[in-house]
Amino acid sequence: MSGIVSFKLVLLGESSVGKSSIALRFVKDQFDDFRESTIGAAFLTQTVRRDEDTTVKLEIWDTAGQERYKSLAPMYYRNAHCAIVVYDITEEESLEKAKGWIRELQRHADANIVIALVGNKLDLGDTRRMISTEDGAKYAESEGLMFMETSAKTPTNITELFDAITKKLPLDRGMGAAQKRQAGTNAAAATQQGRGTAPVQLNAAPPRQEDACGC
Amino acid sequence: MQSQSAHTLRLLPLALYPSHDDETVSLSVLRKACRTWEIDFFPAWVRTQTWKVLLGYLSPAKRTWQETVEKRRAEYLRFMTDFSSEAHTAAPTGNILNQIYKDLVRCSDVDADFYDAPVLWPLETLGTPDAGTRHAVLERLESVNAEYANCAERDRPRIRADSNAPLRYVDRQWHSMFRILYLYAVLNPSVGYIQGMNEVLHVFLRAAFRTRDLQILDTPAQDAELLGIGKTCYAEADAFWCFSLLMGELRELYDFGHSDASTFAAMRQLTDASPASPQLRNNGMAHALFSFSERLHMLDSRLADFLDEHGLDPRLPYYSLRWLACVYATEFSLDGVMLLWDVLFAETVQGQTDRHGKIAMLLDVGCAMLLHIRGQLYQAAVPSTDRLSMPSFPGSYDSPRDEHPPLDTFQRIMQLLQSYPENNVRTILGVAQGIQQHAAAQHTQATLPRDAVARRAPQKPACRASRGTPLQERLAATVQKSLHTPPLRAASFPPPPPDPSSPMSPIGSGASFLRKYTEAFQSSDAAASMSKASTNLAAKALAWRSRPSRSVSDQYAFTTPKEAHEHAVDSPQLPAPSVVDGPEDRDAYKTPLHKATAECDSLSQAPSVGPIHLTLPSMRAAAELGIVTAPGSDAASATPPLAKPSGLSRCIPSGTRDPPKPLPSVPLPGVERGTKSHRGTLDSTNSSGNGPAAEHLNALLAEFKSTEWIKDK
C-alpha cells in the first residue's frame, strides 16, 4: 500500500465556529478575520505525507453551519472516512450543536468513521472562554472521539489535528482507486433520481460505532 | 413602426419618470428592455424603478406610485414597531438575530465601503418614535449578542447633530440589511432567514445605493423621494418589499428538504390533496436541481453524462445549490448580477411554458454556465501529464488513470465551478436566452394545435374573466374574511407561526381558501398574485394580532401591488393590452415573431407611448441632468444604438385587436431542427435577433460551431 491514498473528510458544526477558517488554514495556510458564510458546502483538497511511502490526500467538504442547511448534510458526510466536528470555545451553545452532529454521525454515517471533536478559537481562550477544555475532553472521551483545541488564527494545533486524523485512518479503506467514489456518487445520484427522496432518509442506520478509539 | 419601437425603448426613462405625463408604464416595453440588456444604458434609477414595477411593488399605473410608496414605506415602519419589541417576539428570534448578525458582520469586513456606508434619516420627517423603532431591533440584538454589545461605537446607530443641519439619525447600510432580513424572517416564519438571502438582499441595496448617488439638483423633491435619489433612508423600505416579493416568487429554492417535522407534515397534506405529482410539487431546491440536471441532459447529453460520471451532476448540491440559492449573486460581478437580474425579472412566475418562468430562467443560466465552459470541463478530465501537450480531447478522460485518481478530475472541476472562471455575464446570458427560446419554441410546437384553437377569439374574455374581477373580488373577500377571523388569543403569540403558504396555517378558512385557489389558478398569473397576497396576509395577520386595538378596516384597507395592477387593468380609461400581463402577453413571447407582433400591436393601441412633451420643468431639468434622456438628436447621440427590432417589419398591421396570428411562412426557432438545441436556436435568432443579445448569440454561434466537433465525435 503505497502512493496516494484518498480520504473523504467532512467539517461539521454550528455557524461561524470557524469550519471554513480551519479548512483554509490547513489547505492554504491563510486566515481572514472574517470569512463570508459558506452556502451549501465548499470543496477543498490537501495532501499530507503520512509516512515514508504514503501520501494521504484529504478531500474536504466544508459544510454550511446554519440549521436550515442541515438536511443537506448527509449529502456531504455520506461515505466520509473522517469528520471534524467543530465548536467555538467562546459559545456554549455551539458545543451542544456539536454533540447533535456527533449523534447524527454515529447513527447515520459510515460505521467506521473517525470523528474528531474540535474546540476552535483558542486564541480567545484567555478572555472569552465559555467552555473549559475539560468539558470538551470529557465528552469526547465518553464518546470515544479524538479531541483537540485549535486556533485557525494563530494558528495552533491545525496541522497537528490533521496529522492526528491522518494517522488514524486505516490505509486499506482509503480511496486508492476510482471505483469507490464512483460507486458513492452514483448511488447518491440514483437516490436523488428517485425524485424527492430526501437525502436524510437514505441511510438505514448503521450500528453504532463500538470500536472507536479512545484517544 | 420600427422607429416607434426604438423610440419607446430609448424613452424608457421618460416612461418611468414619476411626474412625466405618461399614465402607465408598458410592461412589455420594460420586459423587452430587460431582455435586450438595455437597462444598462440608462441611469441607475431606471433599473431600480424597472425592478420595482416588474416585481409588482409598483403598479404600471404611475398615478398610484406616490400613494403606494408612501403607504408601503409607512407600513414597513409599522412592522418594525410591531416586531421590534420583545413582547411580540419571544425566544425563537434570538437565534435569528444572532445568525443574521454573524453573517452580516462577516461580509461587512470584506466590503466595508458598502456595509459601513452611513444612512441618514432626517428626524424631522420621520419623528423620533420611528427612529426609536429602528433602534429597538438593534437593542434587542445587543441583549442577545454579546459580541455586538461589546462592539465599537462606530457600529451603533446614533443621533447626529451637525452644526448647520437638522438632527439626523445615522445608521449604516448593514443596519438596514439587518432590519430587513430580520423582519422578513419574522414575517415569513416558514422560510425564515437562510444564509444566502443576505447576498440577494445585498444586490437590491446596491442598486438603491447607486440610485442614491445620482445628482438631484433641480429634480423636484417629490420625484427624487419617490425614486430614492439623494436619500438612502427610503431605500430600506423599498428594498424590503422588493426582496420580499422576489423571495415569495423563489420561495421553493429555500426549501432544502424535509428537515423538520412541520415541513414534512405540510408536504403530506399537499400530497394528499393532489396525489398526481406528490414529490415534484413541493420539493423545493431538490426539485429545482433535478430539473437543472434534466435540462442539461436535454441540451447536451454528452456533457451531462460526463459530469454525472465524475460525480458532478448538477442535481447534487455541490456547486449548483449556491448558484440558485444566491440567485447567482455570488458568481458574477455586481454589474453582471444586475444585468442577469434584469433578464430574470422580465420573466413571470408563470413563464412562457408551463414552467415557473423565473426558476426556468435561473436553470437556463446554470446550463449556459456549464455549456459555456464545457471545453474547460472536458480538459479538467485529461490527466495532468498529458494536458499541456494535448488539445481538449474529450475521449481521453476514459483513459487509464492509475497514476491519477479521478479525484483529480473531480477536484479540478469543482475548483472551476466553485469560482466560475468566466465573468462576462453577457456571454452566459446570450446562451441562456438561446436555450430559453429553444424551450419556448419546443413548447409552442408541442402545444400548437391546442394553442391555435385557443388563440381564436373567445380566449380573451374567458381569460379575463378568470383572472380579472371575480378573482379580484374573491381575493379581497378572502382577505377580509381571514382578517375578521378572531385572533388566536393574542397572549399565545407567537407559538404556531402563522404562514398562509403553509397548509397548517392558523389563519384558517382564509388559508385553506388560498391554498385551494392557488392550486386552481396555477396555470395563470393568479398564482403569482396569490403568493404576493399571502405574504401580505401573513404580515397583516401578525401585525393585527400583536396590535388588537387598531381599527381593522382602517389598518387593512390596502391592496397588494398586484391588485393595484389589476385595478389598473380593469379601469376603462387605460389601454389594457399594453399593461396586462395576461396570457396573450405571454403568448407574445413564445416566438420573436409573436413577440414583435404583440409589441407592435400594443404600441398602436397605447396612448401612453405617443409623442413626448417636454413641457414639464422637472422633465427638462431631469433631461439636462442626464437623469432622463431627452428625445431628439441629443438623445440619439447620447444613448447607444438600439436594437433593430427586425421582427416588426413583418408584423401584422396595427389597429387590429385580434390576437397575433402565427405566420406560417416564418419558421419557429429551433423547431425544425429538433433536438439540436442551441445550434438550432442560435441559427434562428440570426433572423429574428434583438439587439445586443443577437450579436452575442451570433458570436456564440461561431464559438459553438467551432467546438461542435466535440459533440459529434
Automatic annotation (TrEMBL), chain A:
Biased composition (Low complexity): 177-198
SMART domains found in the cross-reference section: RAB, RAN, RAS, RHO
An example Gene Ontology biological process: vesicle organization
Record's bilayer topology term: Lipid-anchor
Database matches in Pfam families: Ras
GO molecular function: GTP binding; GTPase activity
Keywords: Cell membrane, GTP-binding, Lipoprotein, Membrane, Nucleotide-binding, Prenylation, Protein transport, Transport
Listed GO CC annotations: endosome; plasma membrane
Gene3D superfamilies: P-loop containing nucleotide triphosphate hydrolases
Localisation per UniProt entry: Cell membrane
Top-level taxon: Eukaryota
Major location (coarse): membrane
Segments of this protein annotated with the region Disordered: 175-215
PANTHER family the UniProt entry points to: PTHR47978
Protein name: Ypt52p
UniProt source species: Malassezia vespertilionis
Lineage: Eukaryota, Fungi, Dikarya, Basidiomycota, Ustilaginomycotina
UniProtKB/TrEMBL annotation, chain B:
InterPro entries registered for this protein in UniProt: Rab-GAP-TBC_dom, Rab-GAP_TBC_sf
Domain Rab-GAP TBC: 41-348
Cited PROSITE patterns: TBC_RABGAP (PS50086)
GO molecular function annotation: GTPase activator activity
One of the protein's GO biological processes: intracellular protein transport
SMART domains in the record: TBC
Region called Disordered, residue ranges: 442-510, 560-588, 633-695
Biased composition (Pro residues): 493-503
PANTHER family named in the record: TBC1 DOMAIN FAMILY MEMBER 13 (PTHR22957:SF27), TBC1 DOMAIN FAMILY MEMBER GTPASE-ACTIVATING PROTEIN (PTHR22957)
Protein name: Rab-GAP TBC domain-containing protein
